[in-house]
Batch of 2 targets.
Target 1
Amino acid sequence: MKGQRLVFGIRSYADLARKIASCGEWTAGKVEVHEFPDGERYQRILRSVTGREVVLVGGTVDDRDTLELYDLACSLVKYGARKLDLIIPYFGYGTMERAVQSGEVVTAKTRARLLSSIPPAPGGIRAFLLDVHSEGVPHYFEGAITTCHVYGKPFVAKAARMLAKGDFVLASTDAGRAKWVQSLAEDMGVDASFVFKRRLDGRRTAVTAVSAHVEKRHVIIYDDMIRTGGSLLNAAEAYRDAGASKIDVVTTHGLFPGDALERIQESGLIGHIHATDSHPGVRGARKGFLTVHPTAPLFVEALNNHP
């Protein structure tokens, strides 16, 4: 029902929260936030949430954002929210979902457990996660909180069609996403490809083969998350060496720390990147090389489909 939900957001996701409220034709919530000189944070909810369905938007981008999200979520329940939906566009530490070496901290699990400790609301608490890096992450949430995995396939398909003027190959950076890319490629009626990698040491990998014929073809690489772009550039180089005529990229989560985006562009391997606004890292990026797509429609559809 229009206007039924109240939509709040932590500071780094305030713009996305406003877009979700507008797209869903819901009411935007208000929170007063400021920092004390010692770094402690003050928050005050300025709109009554008693008996309301509340949506809280915030990614676990870093420790500060995670705790801001957690503190606000706990307080929304305390002050009477009947139901709480957490929109988590980017779930941090998604690559630390299991221990490879003895003693490693599985941070994805500990962060999920933290959010699982939010006090239960009468109508329940749900977490909506967009294209998590590991399919096991939603199962780390416990207790009263339930998870809904929002798949970005509509965005990927749209972006790929915008980039391609005709036939193309949908590719992945490694075999880990091959199954997902293969499924989407079949839905779109195009060929899929991925690269085989061999680990050289703890930090470096080398591409050993490309799985499909890409010579003289337009290759669109899908990578669910791009940080510095090292793996992406290794894959792009492999596709170029295999004869690809053009290489573009689609990613759900564009983090681009530091000068990562500039270095990717200056490599000359990639023509264009399409990303969503799931991570604050896309803000202020140079236009022309990077196109940013809104996630608000995806989340509004997910909320409406899971009343």
Target 2
Amino acid sequence: MFINAIEGISKFTRPIMFVSRKYDGTLEPGLSTLFFVNDTGSAITCAHVANIIAQLETINNTFAAFKAERALIPAGKGERAMLQSLEAKYGYKKNSVIELLILVPAVGDTTSLSWVNHDRLDLAIVTFVGLANKQYSSHATFINEPAKIKAGKYLCRYGYPFPEFSNYRVNPETDALEWTNDGSSNVPSFPLDGIITRYIGTSQQVDGIEMSTPGLKGQSGGPLFDEDGLVYGMQFATNHLHLGFDIKDFPITTEQGKKEKVSDSAFLHVGHCVHVDRIKEFLQQNNVAFFE
């Protein structure tokens, strides 16, 4: 049902690839999603995703300053105490994020990124400044008939929830994160269908759309669309509804024939998407061209 729509959506939807480095040396890959709303480099994603992009320069510059001071610590007696003092100065602990690496592939050449967050919703506009050699094609087309956004409407989401890529490392000479030509660069897309269950917001204004299925991690910032490829919203969160089917010490027989007692709490995981009307209003407020 969504075959043609997904082919169209994929032309202007892109992953945001993240790698974070913690002070204990752990490297963690992650993904989010954005999609373009015009041909001049304007895209939308979640504000919580844009906030990660905004932290990159500060986090990396802070680590560069830390490394410069660390290099001045003389080897020998007192070295460990001086390093601990420096770690305390910078607030570095085992799980502190000390470096970030971010890549949005297959977009084109750009001089910089700029962004603006919605003052209330988890929504942001990201602009690829000075875009040249554009590598995405087409753009989102938003639905202009809000009356069609009703409970029971069958829709689909699209994004990049599974960080299978491994083409990154810490350069041993520079002690810095970098992308490499080795390892896998695979970032598989993943569509997920569902029906509209409820509206999110107040009686005065609908801010969002609730879906019967979860938005997967990494799909944040991805489009919500119908079988014609018209965009109804943007995935931003997943809510967990307690179903009240709690069981405690419930007797079962396992596949191996053993009798055991299990306890469980059941939840329904439902996706939350920013409503298309709020997206269009935000684009208009910031003089960003879009199509409907």
